[in-house]
Specification:
alpha/beta; 12 strands; eight-stranded mixed beta sheet; about 325 residues; Isopropylmalate Dehydrogenase; 12 helices; about 35% helix
């Protein structure tokens, strides 16, 4: 069986990504990997962390013209002007990260692969307040209008209606149409990927789905959207109070829980599964997955980081 390669953008160079990558590639992986990153950075970090890695150097045209056979780990080298292997996260890496993404998206457009993983990236320095996260960045780059972020675990997954958005803006971004669109996307993804009709629970926005204001978003927005989705034959229930839906006997009723904002659903999921979850962007013209953790600059060079989320990301795309 021929497996399409998994394209991996290394992401923020001053992160723990390559440490966990070195650990993961020792595992059994069927698909070849096309790593887009700095060769010098990889070799420096491998040396500092006492890992050995065999890289098959290729270039973009080799892949497009199918000139070179892929091996287990293939590298497209992107130059990074950085004197030290480990440094501080800053905007100096922005051009490098952007170049890596551009190469990856060109390869996907040429049908080299339909599978993308990116390492962690600092939203503060790379996105510069232009995008809430890499989810939105890739949606813009691919002209995708409808998309959603899913934090996936085979036992339970979550989808926040709003992603990396300050809490004071959340209520302004909740509307019936967006909730209906998210559920449609999720349902389609589950049917395509897992051949299953998904069971979805939906939280309210306010504590206990109640509000002391005259306007209650849960009654005026969330409930009507759920009612409409039920008429359209989607398997949805809610709105549920966010402080009880994750209790054992409640969460076992659902495959996925849609929440109104990022921490409302990510906090309980990470408490339940820790690193055993991955971040999936659905709605893009390819499957994008990333490990569910940040650059973790404080752990650089310590060789103590958990590789499970990256391993699960690769295994999810290893088909």
């Amino acid at each position: 069986m021929n497996y399409k390669p998994i394209i991996i953008v290394g992401g923020e160079p001053n992160s723990i990504f390559f440490e966990i990558f070195f650990k993961v590639i020792k595992k059994k992986i069927k698909s070849p990997i096309i790593l887009i990153a700095s060769e010098k950075l990889i070799l420096n970090q491998a040396k500092l962390l006492s890992y050995k890695i065999n890289l098959n150097l290729i270039n973009e045209n080799d892949l497009i013209e199918r000139k070179k056979k892929l091996k287990k780990i293939n590298l497209i080298n992107v130059e990074l002007k950085q004197k030290k292997a480990f440094n501080k996260i800053s905007s100096k890496s922005n051009k490098y990260i952007s170049s890596c993404f551009d190469i990856a998206l060109r390869l996907i457009k040429k049908d080299i692969s339909n599978k993308l993983i990116n390492g962690p990236i600092s939203k503060k320095t790379f996105l510069k307040n232009k995008f809430n996260g890499i989810t939105e960045y890739l949606a813009k780059k691919t002209n995708t209008k409808e998309f959603a972020m899913i934090i996936y675990n085979k036992k339970l997954s979550v989808c926040p209606m709003t992603t990396h958005l300050p809490i004071k803006y959340v209520s302004k971004r909740i509307n019936k149409l967006e909730l209906i669109k998210k559920v449609r996307l999720i349902n389609k993804f589950w049917k395509t990927k897992f051949n299953k009709k998904i069971k979805i629970g939906i939280t309210g926005l306010n504590p206990h789905c109640e509000s002391i204001d005259n306007f209650n978003e849960d009654k005026s927005i969330v409930s009507p959207a759920i009612k409409r989705l039920k008429k359209l034959k989607y398997n949805v229930q809610g709105p549920y109070a966010a402080d009880t839906i994750f209790l054992k006997n409640n969460r076992k009723k659902f495959d996925l829980i849609v929440g109104m904002y990022h921490d409302q659903v990510l906090t309980p999921l990470k408490t339940l599964f820790e690193y055993d979850a991955i971040n999936i962007t659905i709605g893009l013209p390819f499957i994008r997955v990333s490990p569910d953790h940040g650059p973790n600059e404080a752990m650089l060079g310590k060789n103590k980081s958990n590789y499970l989320s990256l391993y699960n990301s690769i295994k999810f795309l290893d088909f």
